[in-house]
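ok so I'm stuck.
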Amino acid sequence: MPGKSGLEVAASVSRRHPELKILIFTMHSGKTLHGAAREAGAHGVVQKSYASRDLIRAIETLIDRGNFFPKDSAPSSDSPLRSNFSFVFFRTAALGFA
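replied:
not stuck anymore, here's the structure
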């Protein structure tokens, strides 16, 4: 969305569609990002550099109604509110896991 950060979009989607699971797919990392993502209503974060290791696990975790915030992310000095993110939104019911 033009003029909005990724976390602002996540918060807006989360408020309007609380049934959706939100997974943030980003090149950024760190506990600051994880906290901001949680506050925005995201259910997980996958760092792009760890996608081959974490993406499938993250999706499976969200399908099982869990959250995915890996503990081994490196600290980041980036402001998560100014970062660009990719998102994965899905309804577990639509995937047959209601």
